[in-house]
């Protein structure tokens, strides 16, 4: 598998400039919000993990990237990353199913299985600590 392509420093700069839309403020290319000092990330519009090998042989272009505000559009529950992660997992499941790679289900050990295992002593090999009395008579 070809590895994930990253944007070059120059490409990231071009994307940042593009997000300004001719103005001076960096804007989220997802929702258009002016980000100011808020953190942003350069996102692969199509997640690299979802790209066919043929695509990954080509050079990455800035048209394949977008600047997203970290809190508004990229991370978070409904953010792009979360959606990508779900799509990637689904694609893997689909691939495995199609290729007969599904992992057999693991047996959940029953209480009985657990009982037959030898008991482990966490203090094995350690010197025994001196015994202490629970109650000691106070000197009057
Ligand atoms: Zn946004």
TrEMBL record:
Region (Disordered), start-end ranges: 91-140
Biased composition (Basic and acidic residues): 110-140
Protein name: HNH endonuclease
Source organism of the structure: Shinella oryzae
Higher taxonomy: Bacteria, Pseudomonadati, Pseudomonadota, Alphaproteobacteria, Hyphomicrobiales
């Amino acid at each position: 598998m070809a590895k994930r392509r990253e944007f070059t420093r120059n490409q990231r700069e071009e994307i940042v400039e593009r997000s300004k839309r001719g103005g001076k403020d960096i804007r989220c290319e997802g929702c258009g919000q002016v980000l100011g000092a808020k953190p942003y990330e350069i996102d692969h519009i199509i997640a690299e993990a979802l790209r066919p090998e043929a695509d990954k042989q080509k050079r990455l272009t800035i048209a394949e990237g977008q600047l997203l505000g970290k809190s508004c559009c990229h991370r978070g529950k409904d953010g792009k990353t979360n959606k990508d992660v779900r799509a990637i997992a689904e694609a893997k499941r689909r691939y495995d199913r199609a290729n007969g790679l599904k992992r057999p289900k693991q047996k959940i050990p029953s209480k009985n299985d657990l009982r037959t295992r030898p008991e482990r002593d966490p203090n094995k090999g350690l010197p025994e600590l001196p015994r202490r009395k629970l109650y000691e008579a106070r000197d009057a």
